[in-house]
Amino acid sequence: MSAAQTDAPVPHYSKEDFVSGADVRWCPGCGDYAILSVMQKTLADLPIRRQDHVFISGIGCSSRFPYYMNAYGFHTIHGRAPSIATGLKCVRPDLTVWVVTGDGDGLSIGGNHLIHCLRRNVNLKIILINNRIYGLTKGQYSPTSEKGKVTKSSPYGSIDYPINPLCIAIAAEATFIARTVDSDPRHMGQVFARAARHKGTAFIEVYQNCIIFNRDTFQPIVGRETREDRAIYLENGKPLIFGKKKDRAIRLNGFKTEEIAIADGVTEGKNILVHSESDPLPNYAYMLTQMEYPEMPVPFGIFRCTEKPTYDDMLNDQVKFAVEKKGKGNLRDILYTEETWTVKG
Amino acid sequence: MPVQIPERELDSVTIRFAGDSGDGMQLTGDQFTDTSALMGNDIATLPDFPAEIRAPQGTLPGVSSFQIQFSRNEVFTAGDAPDVLVLMNSAALKVNLGDLVTGGLVVVNSDSFNEENLKKAGWKSNPLEDNTLRDYSVLKVPFSSLTRNALAQSKIKPSEVDRCKNFFALGLVFWMYGRTLDHTVKWVQEKFAKKPEIAEANLMALKAGYNYGDITETMPHRFFVRKADIRPGTYRKITGNEATALGIVAAAQLSGKEILYGTYPITPASNILHELSKRKNFSVKTFQAEDEIAACGAALGASFGGHIGITATSGPGICLKSEMINLAVMVELPLVILNVQRGGPSTGLPTKTEQSDLLQVMFGRNGDSPVAVVAASTPSNCFDYTLEAVRIAVKYMTPVFFLSDGYLANGAEPWNLPKIENLTPIKIEHARPVDGRPFWPYVRDEKTLARGWAYPGTPGLEHRIGGIEKADKTGAVSYDPENHHRMTELRRDKIRRIAEDIPRAEVHGDQKGKTLVLGWGGTYGAIYAAVSELRKEGKKVSSCHLNYLNPFPKNLGEILKNFETILIPELNMGQLLFLIRAEFEGVRAVGCNKVKGQPFKIREIRQAVEELR
Questions:
Q1: A16 interfacial to chain B (CB closer than 8 Å)
Q2: Residue range B251-263: average pLDDT?
Q3: Would the pLDDT of B14 be above 80?
Q4: Contacts of residue A73 in chain B, CB cutoff 8 Å?
Q5: Looking at chain A, which residue has its C-alpha nearest residue B262?
Q6: How many CA atoms lie within 13 Å of A87's alpha carbon, on the beta-carbon side?
Q7: Residues of chain B neighbouring A319 (CB-CB closer than 8 A)
Q8: Which chain A positions have a beta carbon within 8 Å of B476's beta carbon?
Q9: Which of B262, B309, B457 faces A95 most closely, judged by CB atoms?
Q10: Would the CB atoms of A116 and B260 count as touching at under 8 Å?
Q11: Quick check: is B358 in a domain?
């Protein structure tokens, strides 16, 4: 529908062009500010017109996101954003559609829609902001909260086993799966930009710090002191090496990953895993998602980036095929079929 | 040489075909209906089948039936009681005999009355041999063995031979009523084009059945029913769901928009999806979602994108969609929700008809959340009211419910086809950018109160909407108490104003009097026919039928005041009655309620009128 405007070159945008001007009402110090800022900056650098970006969210702190973006936005209902975004893409494949969700919205109440959106490979970009807590309802445990977590609704400790968002995405065979963190804007920007370019559902988990109800939950992994030892940054084609002194690496032991020491940067003969985003089998990416704190360093970056036809493309191909085969539909032909009879006056 | 058997003329006949749910009774009924319609009779049908695909063979719950009334006169229902039963087994006899008119004809597959089958159907002795059928004419025909004989040379499997017996029965009934075989022959050839041996077997059975009537002297007469004297025009047979699907296709064509039909399979709405999924070259896209919620969400997403979202379901699905419909109320986007009603509550009676979702669609959402509601009243006008729902939705930027029901959905009638050039285009005006001014999503049209519809991709109209209350005009998030009160009033007034834009209600019969029978939806045929009969007998009774339930036509209050008593027959426990009592003070309204999964019979309405004090 916006075909008329596509001839003109995409304007040069600045970050400010994507600021809506609405008062941002997140708590001071909330990790969402960083995510919002990185998103605004990322969009300014993309060759996509502002009016062609759409942000769709559900319910929760993170879901206020669309109000703050100067683009088209739809703050919908709890957990259902992927379904609305899917419908939009069915009729408007020309748009770049972002879904912003949280651990409660996307994995609890909206878990079903998330799975089905991922398996269909609708060309959407899903940002799941994970702070492992219910913020907007003031601090109950979420589906990603660790077992035993003491919250307002779990005074004796949560007895729910947590869900791992990236495992869900891999189980649904999502084509783009990544993890980043609110405290690393540069990395986050790179991941967002890659997601925007991906054709198919992009699923990004962003570790986010809820300063009020779950302060520093990811600090042991991503804190300044620990990051280099407890986080591992994935780079396509590069071996999985980490540590302040680059002296630790990951290799396979049977079906499990294990951490080993490498002295003096010698990697030969150690069977160190080399990262491959494009492995068509999900097994490797799945093993990466199983690397969890504290046993293993936690991976950040793009776990998986593969290609398969998108739902919106296939839908529109079927339309094209039907038109080619049968011609553009004519109402008269299906109302006045062969099976009619005439009554004369 | 066949004997020349005399013919007798009848004005109208009601036949019910009944058998096991695997016996092909719906197909048999459909074929008889198509042929009768093509031969110029007026027709109305009532398919009635169990929710199970194949209930245990030969048992009472497994009985499936199809009733058709065909006539030389205008017909309004599928007939109160069958004149003829065509039965494939003893269970079908057990289930249906009580409905047959006294002196009616039973045509029965005598092969199925063996000890085992009789036991399954709960007969203590063989009803073909005792006095059970003494008040009826009985034609015992060994359908199964005659079909086997006819297909003795066929190479198909014995189990497939047995499945042809419904065509034998159909052939015989075709002969009895002087129908031609042409339509069914063509249908079989097309349907089984890839299985010529099956096509041939079915046609042999059909012709053997026809010839059986012709050669044997089992029937003293053949019958014929003249062409109906109905309004000139081009007709086709149509069911409610077919008409609904065509209405959706027409809405896409008349609006120049794409339609996204988001749905999740549910009885009795699913065949609208089947029909539309074939229509991809008509600007209709179908989306079979993971659940009812996502189906509705996808439709709303399409409307946000500047196209038209339609979702369809039955009552249980409405429960799940309620939150999404409420979001559409709040963000004021067009959305059409088709509800093909069935018996409730909960899973209820999946394949049976009921009108018990009226209050659900009116009120089943949190907050003060008004929506427009229209209802079809005949299979063919499902087309008109689907179009009407789309027209209202896009003009008023609101969700609109279209109510149909299992009876309308599956029932068939002849449809006097509209002339394409007489269909009114659906005009849609989108918001346009005004230089130097930001777009305010809640600025309204003065007349309709509809907000501007701006869609993504339009430069300069970037805006945000959502389920949180918004400030009047600007659309900024607002918790201001005065603003919420005002927005609630605006949402209400917008729906009320639709009353200025819909036809006035009409009274059938005297405009003033003792009794008005007020109906809505699929009860139209039975009410109209009952009131017409009573009026012919000199009774002071009129009727009025509503296709607009919210808002009501603006003259409805005036109409109601002109009658002493308003009788409201409904296939629920009094839902329109509740609305009428709430809206119109001082009206004496009484209900006539039935929730048996079956439509009203004409005589039930008559009786209710006659029993009024």
A1: no
A2: 98
A3: yes
A4: 463-466
A5: A87
A6: 36
A7: 280-281, 285
A8: 22
A9: B457
A10: no
A11: yes
pTM for the complete prediction? 0.95
Q: Cα separations (Å) of A185 from A1, A189, B59, B598? A: 34, 6, 69, 65
Task: Kindly tell me the burial class for residue B519, based on how many C-beta atoms sit within 10 Å of its own C-beta (0-12, 13-18, 19 or more).
Answer: buried
Pairing outcome for strands B84-87 and B105-109: parallel
To the nearest whole Å, the CA of A34 is away from the closest chain B CA by 21
Q: Does A36 touch chain B (CB under 8 A)?
A: no
Angle at B297 between CA B294 and CA B302, to 5 degrees: 130
What is the count of structural domains for chain A? 1
* Closest residue to B236, CB basis, from A74, A88, A337: A337
At A195, phi and psi to the nearest 5?
A: -60, -45
Task: Report if residue A248 sits inside a domain.
Answer: no
The tokens of A136 are what?
């907007």
- CATH number for B365: 3.40.50.970
* Whether complex ipTM tops 0.90: yes
Q: What is the pLDDT of residue A150?
A: 96
- Residues A301-312 as b/e (b if ≥16 CB within 10 A, e otherwise) read bbbbbbeeebbb
Question: Are residues B195 and B312 both part of a single domain?
Answer: no
Partner B contacted by A4 (CB < 8 A): no
Check pLDDT > 90 for residue B243. Answer: yes
pLDDT band per the 50, 70, 90 thresholds, residue B220 = confident
Out of A92, A318, A331, closest to residue B457 by CB: A92
User: Is B477 domain-assigned?
Assistant: no
Alpha helices in chain A (DSSP H): 32-45, 65-68, 81-91, 103-104, 111-120, 165-171, 185-197, 219-222, 227-230, 283-289, 311-326, 331-335
**Is the residue at A249 inside a domain?**
no
Return the CATH number at A156. Answer: 3.40.50.970
Token pair, residue B127, equals 């009803």
What span, in angstroms and rounded, lies between the C-alpha atoms of B613 and B609?
9
Does A213 reside within a domain? yes
Nearest to A179 by CA among A109, A215, A126, A105: A126
Say how far apart CA B566 and CA B589 lie, in whole Å. Answer: 5
Is A74 in contact with B462 (Cβ distance < 8 A)? no
Give per-residue pLDDT as tens, A116-142: 999 999 999 999 999 999 999 999 999
In this predicted structure, what is the pLDDT of residue A6? Answer: 57
In chain B, the residue whose alpha carbon lies closest to the alpha carbon of A1 is B457
Which residues on chain B are in Cβ contact (under 8 Å) with A314?
A: none
**Which residues in chain A are contacts of B246 at CB distance < 8 A?**
334-335
Q: Which residues of A177-191 are buried (b: 16+ CB within 10 A; e: fewer)?
A: bbbbbbbbbebbbbb
Helix (H) or strand (E) holding A127: strand A124-130
Q: Do B232 and A339 touch (CB under 8 A)?
A: no
Residues facing residue A176 across a β-bridge: A202, A305
The angle that helices B292-304 and B315-331 make with each other, rounded to 10 degrees, is: 30
Give B513's strand partners: B563
Which 288-327 residues of chain A touch chain B by CB within 8 A? Answer: 315, 318-319, 321-323, 325-327
Q: Select from B286, B304, B365, B458 the residue whose CB has the most chain A CBs within 10 Å, as the one to mutate to test that interface.
A: B304
- Residue A85 in domain: yes
Nearest to A97 by CA among A232, A242, A196, A164: A196
Using the beta-carbon criterion (under 8 Å), do B294 and A335 form an inter-chain contact? no
Which range of residues forms the domain containing residue A127?
3-217+309-326
Lowest mean pLDDT among A55-59, A222-226, B325-329, B471-475: A222-226
User: Same structural domain for residues B80 and B195?
Assistant: yes
Q: Supply the Cα-derived Rg of chain A in whole angstroms.
A: 23
Degrees (nearest 5) of the Cα angle A118, A122, A125? Answer: 80
CB contact, 8 Å: A334 with chain B? yes
Residues of B in Cβ contact (< 8 Å) with A48: none
Q: Mark whether B204 and B255 lie in a shared domain.
A: no
